[in-house]
Amino acid sequence: MSKSKEWLATAGTNTKLCHGGYEPSDYHGFVNPPVVHASTVLFPNARAMETRTQRYTYGTRGTPTTDALCTAIDELEGSAGTILVPSGLAAISIPFLAYLSSGDHALIVDSVYSPCRHFCDTMLTRLGVEVEYYDPEIGAGIEALMRPNTRLVHTEAPGSNTFEMQDIRAIAEVVHRHDCVVTMDNTWATPLYFKPLDFGVDVSIHAATKYPSGHSDILMGTVSANAKHWPKLLEAHGAMGICGAPDDAYQILRGLRTMNLRLEHHFRSALKVAEWLEEQAGVARVLHPALPNFPGHEIWKRDFKGASGVFSFVLAADSPEKVKPKAHAFLDALQLFGLGWSWGGYESLAVLVNLDDRKIRKGQKDGAVIRLQIGLENVEDIIADLERGFAASAAV
Ligand SMILES: Cc1ncc(COP(=O)(O)O)c(C=O)c1O
């Protein structure tokens, strides 16, 4: 018989992460859930089959493994329900398709994760949705952009690559007066450092590929909705048949157990590196919300409980022609850092950011934007590697 989990509702973060989602007494006392590979589920009789009156009905509609992860995420997000999808990008595109129809207007933050913009500018536009980008620092000023047919406002804070902060509560208050849905890509903070639904967001989106996975080997997305918006999300998920795989769901739940410990390490190390970068002659600016002189710092301090391991800096260049050669010299000299796109894993990574698709928050003039993911290596080794990069770029 299943034991009660009521005590978990008021427990601390680490306790929730350790015990969330699954009750060992549900499966012979094993502390981890079974990995259920499933398409067919049998019904005991024709009546049960007709009415679908049993917990599991078909592999795409959930299994004990995916339920364990969805429940764990609901406990962290405070959401009414969570769906699993095969990537973080699908965790953006599926809710957009759930809530938007032809003739609707959608407002998307200009500092959005770039492939989201691609989805909006291609598929959404082709389906007859009017897409408009807005300044991340607009706050309550979003009122001026609302139209009678605005149905969805998408937020992401901090913004991808340039880390602008958004006043999520102020935006949600305005948007709700217009009966629109507010979505947020909260991948950077995870629900441990920012809980979107507590700030008025209706639908919280995560690339679980990043910190929940933590080991650069799993792709998965989660979408969690409040009670008002859960039925439409569940319906769209069922209609599209784009579900998370059981082995991946198991690994993400496994990752959640240690996510807070890993995040604390990423937070500490990344901040140390960011502070060190601020002192370097080759750096024009450091774009990290936890630094007191960063423009969005006050919002971060007010609303967020921590910062993860990803931030950017502007590599100073004394002339426009030198921006790219200096950036390439910097990146090519790195030995510990890998050059790779994803983040949230154990290893440090660097990327030369391309801001050409921005409509409002365009590229920096004083140098290349380099995004760093600070991994779990020793900070001294990370800094020693960055020193190699600065020496190489100074020689250009
Ligand atoms: C902010 C953000 N959201 C979503 C995604 C998409 O995640 P995935 O790589 O799982 O598609 C990424 C990936 O880099 C991201 O940075």
UniProtKB/TrEMBL annotation:
The keyword Lyase applies. It catalyses: L,L-cystathionine + H2O = L-homocysteine + pyruvate + NH4(+). Keywords: Lyase, Pyridoxal phosphate. It is an enzyme of class 4 (lyase). GO terms for biological process: L-cysteine catabolic process to pyruvate; transsulfuration. The keyword Isomerase does not apply. Its cofactor is pyridoxal 5'-phosphate. One of its GO terms (molecular function) is pyridoxal phosphate binding. The modification N6-(pyridoxal phosphate)lysine is found at residue 210. Its EC number is 4.4.1.8. InterPro entries: Cys/Met-Metab_PyrdxlP-dep_enz, Cys_b_lyase_bac, PyrdxlP-dep_Trfase, PyrdxlP-dep_Trfase_major, PyrdxlP-dep_Trfase_small. It comes from the Bacteria. Belongs to the trans-sulfuration enzymes family. PANTHER family: CYSTATHIONINE BETA-LYASE-RELATED. This is Cystathionine beta-lyase.
